[in-house]
Amino acid sequence: MDVSNIITLAVGAVGAIATYYGTMNGAKMQIKNQQEQADKQFVNEMKKLNQARKQQEEFTRKSIENFLSNEIKSNFNKINNISLSRDLTNNSMPFVYLMNYTYKYDEYNSLKHELIKFESDEVKEIINIYDMFYLLERKQGVQGFTQTEYEALKKAYNVCLSKYL
After folding, report:
1. How far apart, in Å, are the Cα atoms of 113 and each of 26, 30, 116, 161?
2. Is the Cβ–Cβ distance between 159 and 128 less than 8 Å?
């Protein structure tokens, strides 16, 4: 073999090796770019899904509160009067005040399992308001309340005055 053939063979081998590494590096770069694009697309899709989920949760929460609002107003209208409001404001202890009402709990009972999924002050207020109705119905007046129950009654009553009239 003469020297020119060896040089040609060596140049060809070096060229083949360089081509191989260049092709491999190019393929790696292309795969890396495609992976980065896929990652960005995945992140964008997750953001869209989270935003859609949050919007759905907010719609559900508002719908539940709307349904319950009507029932609370109906129940509260049975007990709301000037005399009870005055007595609750002026008395720090339970007092004699009789009432024999039956309250509606249909919406609350059907929605309370969904309601408790939303942790908020409004949800706590709604639960406290319904606790007030349950206590008033069971005890049929204010005089049988413990001090803790009485304080909860006053708080729930005032929430109803400010939000459900």
Report:
1. 56, 51, 6, 26
2. yes
